[in-house]
Queue: 2 jobs
Job 1
Amino acid sequence: MSDRTDLLGFDLEGLAAWCEGLGEKRFRAVQLLQWIHQRGESDFDAMSDLARSLRAKLAVHARVGSLPVLSRHASADGTVKWLFDVGGGDAVETVFIPEDDRGTLCVSSQAGCAVGCRFCSTGHQGFSRNLTTAEIVYQLWHAQRELTAGRPDARGVTNVVMMGMGEPLQNMGALVPALRLMLDDRAYGLSRRRVTVSTSGVVPMIDRLAAECPVALAVSLHAPDDALRDHLVPLNRKYPIAELLDACRRYVPHAPRDFVTLEYCMLDGVNDSAEQAHELAGLLRGRLPCKINLIPFNPFPASGLTRSPRSRVEAFADILMRAGFVTTIRKTRGDDIDAACGQLAGDVQDRTRAHERLAAAREMPIRGPLPGRRAGDPASAFDARTPPAKGCA
Ligand code: SAH
Ligand code: SF4
């Protein structure tokens, strides 16, 4: 089983090359892509317009991989959360959020995350490994298949957000072919504006995304100044706010709707004051075409943080809107099944001791500059641990 190639791991180019390697014509890849991704078929024998000889070869050399579903929960509001077993004691979560006009799938890119943001449950779990393209795509394949099974008129997934577990831009090699499949008319056919990559700010990879597969970009800002962002998003010590905003500005000409979304998680007494809203407006004014999305913090016990009161979130939004920024407040969905932003923790074999690091950080005051900025930077340790992104097809 394991020597067979998982065809979910290929975009069209990759699959065409693989078909050639098998002594088949490249155009077979189009047929395969349509069977697998549009019709959700995993049984080569059922692919009736493929020659019998090709089907026989596929049965020997290929498979459409599957991940065991460890659990599936449906929320009262229609949100569905799957926990997939990716082997080695790691499990990742995927969430489907139905709304009146769309169905959004929140997809994971890593088992855990090494960035270690203070307010994020995934970050507290630590990092195990990058997901493969096949594992990223499987989440969409499975959800789409389940949501539309036996219901040809069902809408299923119309939007994908790379906002599940992990930092997608630390897994570029696997991410880019997965994004290409999402966009390919012969696979999922989603428009660029309906596929969003969210990042904590891996600056060089923002440029690479623009060059290789420019989809909608969301950047997790969370603070108006470096001292606070250093504490909340440790990657800031490597790529501070000014560099991050410059990268966002370079991205805008490639963005499907000419702006970048800035995400800001509202933490009680930490980043939610009127003064900080003015500071944020001052930071962004004239600098970046953007929309701001305020996310009410979804608490989990180990964070030691609490959600900003609704009135403060609204006051913060009001200041930004008066300053001319389109600002939205994210609706919290699926929190009864721990499926809301930042609550995805899956099950991760931490290889980073993030848990201990964050437990120690919890004891530190959250305001004020960190001693030795950039020195002993966990982001550097992270770089050493993470395999370099492979060249993309
Ligand atoms: N690693 C990427 C994408 C996954 S996190 C990133 O950080 O952007 C997706 C979004 O959820 C990010 O904006 C993140 O800041 C936010 N988030 C994380 N923990 C959260 C929490 N506990 N409550 C609310 N939002 C959270
Ligand atoms: Fe990683 Fe994003 Fe969570 Fe930060 S918010 S720890 S980057 S998943």
Note: The radius of gyration is 21 Å.
Job 2
Amino acid sequence: MSHEKEYIRGLRDVAACETHLSFVDPLGALYYVGYDIDRLLGRVCYEEIIHLLLFRKLPDEMELNGIRQKLISEMKIPNQIIQSIRESPEGVHPMELLRTAISQLGEYDDEPYDESYSDAANLNRALSLIAKVPTLVAAIYRVRNKKEIVHPKEEYSFAENFLYIFRGKPADQEEKEAIERYMILHADHGLNASTFAARVSASTLSDMYSAVTSAVGTLKGKLHGGASERVMDMLLNVDDLHEVEDYIQGMLFDGKKIMGFGHRIYVSNDPRSRHLRIISKAVCQRINRMDLYQKCKKIQTIVIKEKKIYPNVDFYAAIVLNALDIPKQFFTLFFASSRITGWVTHILEQYSDSVLLRPTSRYIGSYGTKFVPIDKR
Ligand code: COA
């Protein structure tokens, strides 16, 4: 019996697959299919990033129009799912409703469950999921708040439509830019935990809906996408800028983690956080909530000074979404609505590699335990 397996706690630095999609540089850069996001942001729209990740090339004008139209035409979700959201128990976190709704989408796929998984069918499913997840998120919000369902407009970009169908009012130019950039920055990020979960499911040749459901359940955790909702809780817990120092020092003293800080790969700045900080400043200014921005800046200064730990994507994202009028319970759902692009493109990549992702464990239990019959235990 071998129990001398090499054990890598948390799979830190283990490369579990190869990818063409994104590269997370520990020194603080992020590349989508070779393009530095610093060069892309502000120059492309979210649909171009979808095209880039799906087809590994930026679209020309015709391709962009094509993918935009395709996405809008795929946004509609089955009425039965809206009904099921309506009938869900009160008080359930919306992230749980999203997890269930994505799983349910699989039941309404036009093409029946198909063991052969043709590439064309899977590409269609990928586009359909990228289009439908934001619609599910908007439906969860609107049904729960007894608001009418709002339908997307042909003339809007995809990100703009998402904000529109969620809030029920058109975004202005600044909001449009903020949501566009937010979605681009959240689209993909190497083999993060939820993407890994998606790839593990896909590696068993399970269907795309199952793989995405695994990913949503993984994103939900507060060490991953669930962090930004907790960032907002923290900001609301501190009434005044002057209380920030004591509050954060107290948390650090108690050995608690500050949500929105730290990263498995980046050793210093997370480039996404750098961009989100700039966006957050602009959107907080326009709604007169610079107090939130100032609190964030102060927390950042203290945590870097005390722990040399830097803000991650979830930190400034919280006040960006808050300024766009998104309730904090929906922050992780907005993350999922963008990361769905990364998930499905990784799932397609995993299908094309077709190797079972199945590590091993190092057994540290006992051996030779004496069996005792049930009446003698
Ligand atoms: N606040 C305070 N201390 C933190 C911290 C945080 N946010 N993140 C990490 N640390 C500390 C840990 O306590 C640990 O200290 P120790 O060595 O004295 O025990 C050290 O830094 C290493 O952290 P660890 O949790 O082992 O790193 P990891 O690579 O396993 O975890 C995260 C990465 C993201 C899970 C972790 O930084 C974290 O929990 N962050 C808060 C949640 C969050 O924002 N998640 C979103 C990620 S995008």
Note: The chain has a mean pLDDT of 96.
